[in-house]
Description:
This protein is an all-alpha fold. The protein has 16 helices and two strands. Strands 1-2 form a two-stranded antiparallel ribbon.
Amino acid sequence: MHNVVSKFFPVILASLLTACATAAPAPEPTPTAVPTIEPTVTAVPPTATATLEPTATATPIPPTATPVPPTNTPAPTATPLPTKTATPKPTQVVTPRPTNTKAPVVSSGGGVSSQPSTLQKSVQQSFDATLAMIGLVNQMASGGVELCAPLIEKYQGIHAAPQYDTGGQSAMMQQAYAQYRHGIELVDSRAVMIQECGKGGGVLGKNDRGVLVAVLQRAAGSFGQALDSISREGGVSADMPLVNVIRRALAAMSYIGKVYQGGGACAPFIDEYNVLKTAPTYDVNAQPANVQTAYSLYRQAIDLALPKVQTAVDVCNQGGGSVGVLDYGAALPVLKNAEGLLNQALAQLGQ
């Protein structure tokens, strides 16, 4: 065993010496390791600052976000839409309802002037006032006492309508005046009934209303006949303005149509036919376009009506005492068409 120890001792000693030899220089490298660590430490802060500076580039993001609010501002332009739809609706529901209920009731227009002017004007005013009275009486079925005042006012206007002296005028004008006065007398015949309206705190009763309307309708018919007679006063000539000739021809056709429908004396029928037959011609080549159009319509109407009226005139000239209704079906539609042409002619002249 001593031999074994003596055999391995040198080896063990050599190992210890080797270990000691290597362990002894170890403290010397540590000073050199410190400088190598310090450069790496100093290098770290620059790289950290380099990496932190690029992060500052994230600040442009807030400026790019600021344009977003302006792009959203157009959205408030939708606010005009409610204001547009809200304003028209109130304006459409405004006043039609009240005006429709009371305006015709208290209307006092269409009176008759007591000052003489022309017979035709007084007849027209009396005719209009009578129609207005009929309307007021009809409204009394559902209206109140406020209807009585305008009714009495219109009656008083007709009652005080002016008188005229037609002694030196034509038979047609005298006839028109007689028809005018007859209409006034009919209205006057119900004066007490009219003036009693409203005195008892109410309107006329149902029976009184029926009687009054019937009388007023007859009066309106008499005023209408007076207007027809006045419109047929005199003949036509080339010295008259075209518009007056057209009006006169229209009155002649209207009267002829009434005779056809109900039959009548030959004499006035032939007089109106002669108005159409003598309707003058004019040279309108230098006139405005509307006058030329009116004249063309006027001549078409005359040429259309004359052949149909001629048939009845021939019967009258052969000794017939009245115009019958046998030719009614063929003549009346033609006359209506002719009247329509004359009305179109007046419209071209602004009438």
